[in-house]
What we know:
single chain; 259 residues; alpha/beta; five-stranded mixed beta sheet; DUF4130; DNA_repair_put; DNA metabolism protein
Amino acid sequence: MILVIYDGTYEGWLTAVFEIYEYKLEDTVFSKNGACDALLFSSNHVVITDFKKANRVLNGLKQRLSADGFSSFHKAFLSEVNHIEQTMFQFAQYIFSTTKNVEEDFSNAAVWDIRKATRLTGKEAHRMEAFVRFKLTKDQLYYAIIEPECDVLHLIENHFKNRYADQRWLIYDAKRKYGVYYDLENLSTVELEFNQGPVSSKFLTEICDEQEEFFQNLWKRYFSSVNIESRKNMKLHIQHMPKRYWRNLIEKIPPINKK
């Protein structure tokens, strides 16, 4: 068994696929930065991301997949479901082994699993577009914290660029420790350590615009006023807004305790 170690990026995985074919590696298992607890007795093949090799694989996929299929392949990677790299490799092997289009061959387990992973990513991106809640700092920067199940930040950035084109904003993925910043002209990726400690009145006073706490409370009162107690259906509510998102939704944050 050969442990194929790559840097966790899509380009790194594509490079790994190229080298598996290049060096005729067999019985391979993918590992991000060597993190694997399943292989006690194995040899390692360390992959250094090479964009030329990655593009060779991308071009091969593009020639054999439809435009939607090609886009879906990347979205499957972003799903980050368990063993998705292995599933994608099996799918790629199937694609490269035939000249026919196999995207709709759901009798093949890899094809079906790729479809499920793609739908999961699409669903999570759609939810993030609805669940992002911005807060305003004193220097007029709108920021939001998200923790999506899939790595969808780059899939939703243009939605917010178009919707909030006249505002500077930062959306930060606390799970993956990176964010997207919009400066009124361009989008850029930023990496930073962001402390998500409990919000306090003192903290808001220090970093937020003077009116931010007022508007947060106004937003909470609005949601409270439109809620009809007799029609409350928590099962349906949680189905549309799972609890894992609540910690970053203003309307779900408990009232701030004055200190």
